Every structure is written in structure tokens, then in C-alpha cells.
Amino acid sequence: MADIEVGSPPITPSGWVDWLHSKLLQRRTKLRFYSNYYDGRHQKMVFAQAKYQSEFGRLFDSWSDNFCGLIVDSVNERLYIDGFQMTDEPGGDKDAREIWQRNRLDAESNAAHLDAMVHGVSYAVVWADAAGQPVISIESAENVVVQYKPGSRWDIEAAAKFYTDDWGREFVTLWWNGRVYTGTGLTGNWGDYKEAPNPLRVPPVVPIPNRSRLTGPAISDLTVVVPLADAINKTVADALVASEYAAWPQRYVTGLEIQEDEQGRPIEPYKVAVDKLLQAENPDVKFGQFEAADLKNYVNLVNMLVQHMASISRIPFHYFLLNGGTAPSGESITSAEAGLIAKARERMLHFGEAWERVMRLAFLVLGDKRSEAHGAEVIWRDPENRTEAQHMDALLKAQLIGVPRDQLLLDAGYTPQQIERFRSMREQDAKDAMELAKKYPAPVPEQPEGSKANEKEARKAPQGNSGNAARKAA
Which residues pair with 180 in a beta bridge? Predict the structure, then answer.
């Protein structure tokens, strides 16, 4: 890091690579820690004493009671992007949707949200392919790192992506000072860099933070959950040990002389079984048994810890099968999931801001004026689960107050592409109806014979007073 002076930023590409790589390595351990907890690879016996760990630690090497995945997935499964509103044109932006689909972002955006909630942040990199079309790749915080400009939380001064192939070769791409640099080599000893202009003029890396904070990095959803997960694992481990050694009543006998074999080892005086009766000739011998361990105490403690976890994470109790595992229904489920829905909508706020920046960069690649569409909005699917009858009833009431048809279809869960197809289908239905009307005209109803005669007489009758007299005469 010879190109970095104390108290000043790097001034060369090599200096920036070393600085950003060291920054990445500092946080990579924590990122993998949270990844392991999401995957169920927890630390073993965190709150256990050393002797307990040495005796029973190996029993639980491959076991953990993993609620961490549930806490992240229950929010992530409600985050789905249907399209983008880049301009005031109704129905969503077709070009934005095409860019989205071409880059497989229906699935990749789900991975971006998942990694952001586990790690605290994920990244999107926007570039151009050989045909000049925007390419959007989703990257892990374990491979991409950015440096913001002094005093800014949005403007990026430099960004880099580090990755290793299957043969152990390391690669780096650096965006800095209106240029892009690529190189290979070992950590701290990167090879010669290939330099090229950056046509976008800004680092094309967009952080997707889990929750933005004014100071400090974005926080993983698992930060406050991990200690509770460790406590649950320890409590359940204690229950399993107790079920092995103390779940059965232990018998004892007093006043009985202990007999030994030739080697001085105690001889077991009784073979305890269902069909055996314990008896002794000595009246001073007393038999008895200890009470078995009550495992309900462990269950109650685990339930308390899970309730704390549910309250902190804002996940409904019935997701954890608490309160008897009975799922609520009707209005009660709406009330029970209010905290989860509010949490999902908050994530939409932060993730949506990042996706809007991603789409503006994609249009910047195309040289399109929508790269300056700062009023763009993400079209999110409704995160709330409702019955079909409730949903349709709410939409019909919204129609009565003047909500347009296309907006109602969006609220019903249809994508902008489906709504566009509906519009074409309606036009085709109208054309087909007109063709049928021409081919099979509706028959003219026949009038009674008397009415036809009256019409003829009325046409022959003179006008004015003479006409009135003639009608009177008739």
C-alpha cells in the first residue's frame, strides 16, 4: 500500500485496489458469519461452560434449531417487483421491463434482497455488452466494495469487484476517476492493469442496503437474532442431554451391604426389569426412586426465547407455531401480520430507491433521457395476503371512487405485460363483436298490421286545419 499516504486517499489505481481489498477483507468474516447462521451452521454451545462442551459438545456438531432462515425468508417472499414507472405513461415502462427480463432479474432481484437482509447490503453492477445493451449483474458484499466521496452517503468515488475462479486465480475490476481498470494477481501483489475509459463517467455500482442509516454500515436482519438463536440451541441441547440421563426415574437402595467380586469391583445386586421384584431379608434395607427430570421446563424456556425472537424480528407468532400452533384466520390474521407487512413495506422503500438508480444507469448505457428520470417509481406487488373474495371486493369499491381500470388490474396482482395483453384482447373482442354484428344482423321486430295502416293514413292526411278535420272525421 505504498501509494497510500497516511491521512490522504489513494492517488493511483494500485493504491485504490489495495485500499478497497483491505476494506473488503475486514468485513468478509462478519458477512460469512451471518451467512452461516442463515444456512443453519451455528456456533456450538456458545453459553456452555468448558467442561460441558468437552463432555457433550460433539453430540451437537451437526445440529441447530434454525429460526434465522425463517426470519429472512418470511419477508423476502413478499418482495416482488412487477415493473417500473419511469415516466407518466400509464401501465409501466415497457423498455424497463424488457431490460429487467433480459437480465433475469425476476430471480436475481430475489437473491439481491435475500443477500441484503442477511449481509446488510448487496450490489448491482450495470455495464454494456458487445451490442451496447445494458447488462445488470447482482453481486455479493463478499466480492464488491465501494468508497463514498467525503461527506456523501450516495456519491461513489471508487468501487471494485474482486473474485476468484475455480483455479484459484484472483481478478479485480476497479472503477475510479472516469476510468475502468482490470487486473489479476495475488492479494497485495496485483499484476499490470488494463485501462479503458468509463463511458458512464461514474462507477456503475449500486449498493442495495437492507436499511439505510445516517452513520455506520447497513445492518443484517440477523444481528439482534443471533444471541437468541444461540440461547435456544443451548436450551434445546440441555433438554436433549436431560432426556438421555435424567428423563427416566432413577432407583436407589439404602442399608444394603455392597458385595465385591475377586477384583474388588461392586457386584450389582439386582437386575431391574418390569417383571422383577426388589426385595431383601434385612429389614433395614430401603428402596426408593428419584423423580424424573421435567422436560416441560425446557419447553417453557424455549417458548419464551422464541417469543422474544418473534417480537424483535416482527414475525407473527403463528410462523413459529407458538400458542399451540393454531394459525389465525379472517381479521385476526390481518392483525397478526401487521408488523410483518410494515417491515416488508419498509424494505420496499430502501430497496426501491436502489432499483430506481439501477434502472437509470441502464438507460444511461442506452443514452436514453430516462437516465434522468428521478421521479421513477418501482411497481411492487402487494405484500399483504388476502382471500380472493376480500381482494376483489376491495377493488370493486375502489372502482366506485374513480380508480382507473389499469390501476385496479395492477392492484389485483397482474403485471404490466398482462395488462397490456388485456388491452389488446379487449380491442380484439370489440372487433370480433362488430364482425359478428355485420355477418349476422339482428332481425327487425315486426309491427302489428293495424299500426302499419295507421302510418299510411297519417302520411296521406293533409296538414294544418284540414288535416285536423280529416282526423276528426276518421
Answer: 175, 196
Mode of pairing for the β-strands spanning 179-186 and 170-176: antiparallel
Segments making up each domain of the chain, as ranges: 1-42+70-215+316-385, 388-442
Contacting residues for 255 by C-beta, under 8 A, at least 6 apart: 280, 282, 284, 285, 286
Sign of the C-alpha dihedral, residues 363, 364, 367, 373? positive
Closest CA to 160 of 144, 180, 147, 141: 144
Task: Name the 3-class secondary structure at 406.
Answer: helix
Q: Are 295 and 243 in contact (CB under 8 A)?
A: yes
Q: Is the pTM of this model over 0.85?
A: no
Looking at 165-230, which runs of residues are DSSP E strands? 170-176, 179-186, 189-190, 194-197, 205-209
Cell of 233: 440451541
Question: Which three cell numbers, joined as nine digits, stand for 372?
Answer: 434522468
Amino acid at 78: R
Q: pLDDT for 356-414, tens place per residue?
A: 999 999 999 999 999 999 989 999 988 987 767 777 877 788 888 888 887 777 777 77
